[in-house]
Amino acid sequence: MYKNNNSTRFPALLLWGVSFIIILLLLSQTLYFFFSTKSQHQQQLTSLRENLMQEQRKRLDAEMTDAEYMIGQMFTEATDLLKRESRLQTRQALQLMNSLYQRYHQQLSEAEMQQMLIEALRDIRFFDGRGYYFIDRMDGTAVLLPTAPQLEGRSLLDNQDDTGHYIMRGLIEAVSNSRRAGYSNYRWYAPDNDQVMKDKVAYVEVFEPYDWIVGTGDYLYRFEDDLKPRIYNYIRNIRFGNTGYFALATSDGTLLASGVTPELEGINFIDVPEPRIRDSARSVIETARNGGGYLFSDWYRSGSTNPSKKLSLIQPLNDRGWVLIAGIFQDELTELLSAQEQSRDSEIRTIVLNQVIAFTIIGLLALLITLTYSRWLKSRFKRYERDINRQQAMLRKTADSLKLSSLIFESAYEGVIVSDADNRILQVNAAFTRITGYSEAEVVGKTPSVLSSGLQDDSFYRRMWQSLVAEGVWRGEIWNKRKDGEIYPEWLSISLNKDVSGQVQNYIAIFYDITQRKELEQQLRSMAETDSLTGLANRRSLMGSLNRDLSFRERYQSPGIALFFVDLDHFKTINDTYGHDVGDSVLIEVANRLISCLRESDLACRVGGDEFVVLSKYKEEGGDQQLWQLGNRLLDQLIQPFSFADINIDISCSIGFAVHHPGEDAFALMKSADQALYEAKHQGRGRAVFYTDTRNAIACPSPAEAETP
């Protein structure tokens, strides 16, 4: 009886054990594919995050360089402006003196004539009341000094500033040339602090009848202070990406200008009650004191009462006592990564579902086979010989059932190609068909070159095979072609299967489509090079195109290059009156009108809040006429009323433009166009001005003025 029981139970125990081992192997393989796929996706997300962060840092570096340069250029303009104004005032004084001399010198004695000239200049004031005229003799004697009349008639040759510079001798030296005119730099006590000397620039010229030195000047910091509101406005208008902006603060934490929270300007954030903002402000100041660098901190977004995480680049401007901050909020990065995580989770769920289906089918079939085989074996066990034959048949069926494990091969997300030693395809999986469009029957017996896109040359494939033979494996990015002719990128891994003698038996290739990742990379490049509101090129694209075109011009001497600066007049009034939504609609319409005026070879850019730039090429013959026509066309288009729903908005613009001259770099051309724009606004706005030099700018009147008889 014992033997009978054992004989009856043995086949069932054996088959149940075999089924359990098969199911355990299938489960192990399923888990391996699941965790392997999840790990690969996690590595891709980590790599993507690092690449995005690197791109953000590069973007902040580029924007910071541009902003520092423009601020430096603005302060340089203050010195140039002071020199021009001092020269203009001195020339006016000399015109007055010459006029009086020509009229009265024959009627008055020399002493009376000199006294008349002195008194004619004594009470004249300019530069907001700070400026006055002084007269000195060539021997250093003061003739006219309105701020210290007690020194008139005395020699000032030995007067020195706090650097040891002899002031009077410097003035004499400035006119000791063939033009008998020039500039002199020195330091003197500031009107608002008679204990501290500050830099001063004076222009002097000789009054020939009496060989007098006549001149005037002003403190440089006064002109720089007059320029600061323009710098603050420039900082507020800088935008890059969707959330990139600039801010300017003092070294003690007071916010001077901000592109994201202008309503908080003037606040010292070191002492604000909110701990997160206060700690962030202190970290910014500490980073600036240590020479600057990158910093993660919390700050307000526009229109939000809750701080958000942002990455900032801190740059101290020690010579001004300022801290320049370029920041970009991390919401964009978070959204992109969240989308990728959702895509990854969806892919993993699909893989898990496929594996569960395959596992269920294999398990049910294994169970069915086990029950059937057990019953069959019990009924035939007594006849040993026949049972052996039947057992062989069942083993063949069991071997067939093992082929069900190929379901795992078929359910893999990655495409798989198995080829022989001659690289002829033996087998592919379902993912291969899904990715390439070829069925297994269409590619078996062929080489994988049927997928070649032709984008890689023969040297690429030679290097690939050399690496495969030397290392036994090759991994890399490659462009292949689907059955319908579409070229797509894929990540490919090829490994060798060798026998015991080391001879290659098979090549196994595993690949997956990386089109989505490529599209994301392209999206990031587009975000870095275009303005998100208008779709125009941004400042970074402008500088790249301008430098490239200038290099081409320097090499081939053609064509001509012109730069138009377009600034909307009183645009802030539109935002204040109608709201930023209408203001954004106006900016979009302005962009469309700019594009409609340009040729395909021209480039329209948005570089600030209401600031646009047009890069144009022109033929050298008749170039001025071409540029005036373009300037007039831009004016005509941009003064047309803007209509949005039931709102009609009248607007005007100022345009400054300049042409490139040999030897100039991109920043010199931009400075010329900017000076022409400044002159257009100075002449009353609503016009185009062509830059010729610092004083002689040719203006194109507004269309309304052009129609006036």
TrEMBL record:
InterPro entries linked to this entry: DGC-Regulatory_Protein, Double_Cache_2, GGDEF_dom, Nucleotide_cyclase, PAC, PAS, PAS-assoc_C, PAS-like_dom_sf
This protein's UniProt keywords: Cell membrane, Coiled coil, Membrane, Transmembrane, Transmembrane helix
Domain PAS intervals: 401-447
Compartments (UniProt record): Cell membrane
Gene3D superfamilies per record: 3.30.70.270, PAS domain
Coiled coil: 38-65
Membrane topology: Multi-pass membrane protein
Sequence intervals crossing the membrane: 12-35, 352-373
Protein name: Cache domain-containing protein
